């Protein structure tokens, strides 16, 4: 991967100059000037989704310079490196091969002379067989009852991806109840356990490292409570506890039967792991067929990313446009607004994917960056957000580029809900782009107040919406396992594109380690009887306040 200071590239300099012309340009004018804007800045991925990026503050020239920037970074070379399993996770000395997990047709992918396709297919078969046994009620618990509930115990990538997919695919769910325990807060485990019966529940302990404090604490609590159930034997653990991890040694130490171990590998990043055995809860919840359609959808997006020229490559284009906003317009955040209730976890899932990947401050040359890297990602499902934070988007002082996502076909055709939902979806991107000027407001008032003497314009300024808020619209055919897989992979590759060009390492997450380290130290302090004086005055005072309470 090429390591350059992006701000010193020729294209960056051109973009800087170009920005001076663009910064005050209104979307209204851009649309007026060019009636073919939609045709130029949209992509129809037949039967999957239409992506419209015409409501962005860009011109053909902007894209030209951004694409030049991608070329200066040899983005195409980096994409090839990703798929070829090169060691692009440099700081952890690993390849990054989540794309291999969804590459069914390939029979040979080598990592250190080992053909990982064989291992991938073995695990897929294991997922297929096990999920089928559970779904078909051929697996029974310690009292002979068949399994009704699945509890996934995991956090971060070992939680968010599976939960997001399962929630998004609710219409495909079978009879199994799926619960997630992620938080260290004992209330999480307590409340989930109130809903299940140990006799008919299996627990998936999902932790790539099998050392994550939250997960191991929750898993130990659940195991201890399980062993306290009447007539439970130690050997019954094998009927109820399963592990998804790359740390077999710790899994066995925990007391999980070796047959109940679903492996994953260090070339799968936690936040990119839902395609691996980490997706076991997905296969259990919606069936293996649907799980494999999810993988297929992602694989087809992989092919698009790998084989499409940059100027038609959707994750590349969207990634470049994000860089344009964060580095030239100084946009700090990006909104992800999904007009589909089932996809309510999507923006939370993307928060980890984006912010853990591109929340970095040192470039690939070990220099502190002088440019913006990852944006803050946030969002709520539409239309809820409209009655909350959209006010700031329409009339606040911040530029918030946003993605609006909606399925054309709904899974719940009730009355006129969906057509109304669509009307809000189209209305918001239009209103955000074009706003409403004082002149338009005045004309509207005049129309209404015909024949009346005086129009009160005192507070008209408060109603003005300046518009010019950029959005991308994603119209998915329907939320299916296939289209969802396609959409998730699109975002994964958008993140990758940004990481390459912002010259950072997207696949490590050293920052999260500091909090873990400090908490470990503080825990030992909390367990001591004496008051604490070893930290700063604020932390000491907070700890001592707790100790005295
Ligand atoms: O601490 C962050 C992190 O490492 C994430 O990247 C990961 O998804 C999560 O913790 C869970 O890790 P594990 O699967 O090893 O328990």
Could you name the key traits of this structure?
Rossmann fold, 549 residues, globular, alpha/beta, six-stranded mixed β-sheet, 46% helix, 10% strand, binds 6-O-phosphono-beta-D-fructofuranose, 4 domains
Report on the structure:
By secondary structure, this protein is of the alpha/beta class. It folds into 4 domains: 6-72 and 308-434 and 469-501, Rossmann fold; 98-289, Glucose-6-phosphate isomerase like protein, domain 1 (Rossmann fold); 437-468, no CATH class; 512-548, Phosphoglucose isomerase, C-terminal domain (Orthogonal Bundle). Helix content is 46%, strand content 10%. It is built from 22 helices and 13 strands. It has helices at 10-22, 27-33, 37-40, 60-72, 75-83, 116-135, 160-168, 186-195, 213-227, 237-240, 248-254, 280-286, 288-307, 314-327, 346-358, 390-395, 417-434, 438-448, 460-463, 481-501, 511-527, 537-548, and strands spanning 42-45, 49-52, 110-111, 114-115, 149-153, 177-181, 201-206, 241-245, 261-263, 333-338, 376-378, 402-407, 471-476. A 6-stranded mixed sheet has the order 1-2-13-12-10-11, sandwiched between helices. The protein is globular. Residues 155-158, 207-209, 212, 215, 270-271, 356, 509, 512 line the site of 6-O-phosphono-beta-D-fructofuranose (F6P).
């Amino acid at each position: 991967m090429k390591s350059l200071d992006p701000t010193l590239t020729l294209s960056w300099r051109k973009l800087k100059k170009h920005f001076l012309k663009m910064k005050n340009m209104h979307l209204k004018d851009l649309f007026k000037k060019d009636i073919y804007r939609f045709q130029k800045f949209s992509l129809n991925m037949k039967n999957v989704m239409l992506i419209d990026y015409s409501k962005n503050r860009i011109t053909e020239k902007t894209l030209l310079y951004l694409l030049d920037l991608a070329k200066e970074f040899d983005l195409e070379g980096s994409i090839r490196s990703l798929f070829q399993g090169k060691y692009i996770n440099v700081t952890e000395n690993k390849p990054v091969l989540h794309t291999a997990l969804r590459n069914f047709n390939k029979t040979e992918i080598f990592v250190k002379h080992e053909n990982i396709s064989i291992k991938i297919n073995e695990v897929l078969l294991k997922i297929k067989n096990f999920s089928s046994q559970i779904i078909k009620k051929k697996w029974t618990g310690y009292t002979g009852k068949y399994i009704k509930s699945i509890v996934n115990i995991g956090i971060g990538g070992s939680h968010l991806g599976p939960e997001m997919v399962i929630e998004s695919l609710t219409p495909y769910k079978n009879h199994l109840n799926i619960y997630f325990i992620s938080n260290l807060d004992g209330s999480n485990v307590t409340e989930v356990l109130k809903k299940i019966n140990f006799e008919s529940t299996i627990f998936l302990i999902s932790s790539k490292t099998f050392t994550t404090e939250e997960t191991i604490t929750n898993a130990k609590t659940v195991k201890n409570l399980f062993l306290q159930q009447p007539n439970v034997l130690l050997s019954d653990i094998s009927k109820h506890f399963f592990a998804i991890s790359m740390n077999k040694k710790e899994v066995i130490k925990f007391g999980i039967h070796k047959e109940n171990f679903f492996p994953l590998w260090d070339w799968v990043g936690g936040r990119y792991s839902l395609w691996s055995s980490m997706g076991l809860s997905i296969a259990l919840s919606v069936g293996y067929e649907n799980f494999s359609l999810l993988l297929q959808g992602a694989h087809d997006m992989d092919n698009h990313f790998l084989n499409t020229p940059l100027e038609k490559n959707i994750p590349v284009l969207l990634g470049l446009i994000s860089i344009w906003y964060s580095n030239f317009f100084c946009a700090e955040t990006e909104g992800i607004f999904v007009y589909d209730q089932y996809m309510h976890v999507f923006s939370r899932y993307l928060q980890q994917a984006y912010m853990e990947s591109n929340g970095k401050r040192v470039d690939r040359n070990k220099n502190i960056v002088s440019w913006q890297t990852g944006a803050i990602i946030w969002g709520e499902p539409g239309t809820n957000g409209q009655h909350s934070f959209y006010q700031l988007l329409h009339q606040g002082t911040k530029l918030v580029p946003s993605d609006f996502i909606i399925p054309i076909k709904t899974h719940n055709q009730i009355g006129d809900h969906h057509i109304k939902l669509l009307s809000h979806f189209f209305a918001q991107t239009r209103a955000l782009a074009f706003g409403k000027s004082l002149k338009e407001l005045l004309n509207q008032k005049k129309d209404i107040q015909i024949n009346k003497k005086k129009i009160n314009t005192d507070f008209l300024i408060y109603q003005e919406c300046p518009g010019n808020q950029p959005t991308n619209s994603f119209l998915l055919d329907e939320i299916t396992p296939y289209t969802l897989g396609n959409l998730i992979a699109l975002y994964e590759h958008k993140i990758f594109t940004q990481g390459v060009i912002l010259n950072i390492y997207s696949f490590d997450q050293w920052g999260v380690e500091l909090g873990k380290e400090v908490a470990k130290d503080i825990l030992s302090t909390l367990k001591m009887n004496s008051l604490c004086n070893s930290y700063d005055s604020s932390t000491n005072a907070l700890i001592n306040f707790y100790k005295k309470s």
